[in-house]
# Entry
Amino acid sequence: MSPSRRTGRSRLTLALLILTSLAVLTLDFRDASIVQSARRVASSAFSPLRGVAETATRPLTNAWDGITGYGDLEDENARLRERIDELEGDRVRNEDAVEQLDVLLEQLDIDWVGDIPTAVAKVTSGPDSNFSRTIRIDKGSRHGLAVGMPVVTGAGLAGKIVQVTENQAAVMLITDPEFAVGVRITADGTQGTARGHGEGNDLVADMRIPGDATVRTGASLTTSGIDTSPFPASIPVGRVAEARPGRGGLTLDLVVEPMVDTSKISYLTVLLREPPG
# Structure
């Protein structure tokens, strides 16, 4: 049999199957056995064609589903990003709360304060400039604060009250160029005056020490607590970082690293001690 005749018979067979299927689909006798048999024959004949069609159209279907579902995916991603941001914010807040608690506990357990009444205050604003080292706290006269009272942290002397309102106070930090405090070297009791030299700079203490004397690096200085001083004795002030010739070279000035890092203060303790009149 020639190829052309075989092709013709195949086409005739396919046409008959199509006509049979259409007739079966339009018959109302759905429960007739002959109809059911014809449907099964048609279904078997066309299942390969249906499989080819499904395979050919599947990429288009998937692409369409991707296009129509893209907006939902974007919304879900946005919700996930928002939740991640919330969790990150919670983590930071929790870390900050722990840190603030530690700072507060330090303010409540300062052994060298002794029996002096105290008030713990939160810093509400920082210095206006590096030259003027004055900060503000959230306690004032209604809490017992007064001008001249010493201000400390768990590390040592931080400054003094220079201005008071009912609910706020201004604190001059020890690094302010106008700040001065009487100090003494704990090792030998030598006394002098330490002054601020601006943020980032150490204090400089004029101790009237002879120029040929030797002062140990790392020696501790505390407040001297003389009768006219607003500061009680033995508040830690700093440690000697260097001894250098003073004016005229006859005495030594001590460069003193403060015990308190004034750039990182969040809470302060005010010693409710009236300055000497």
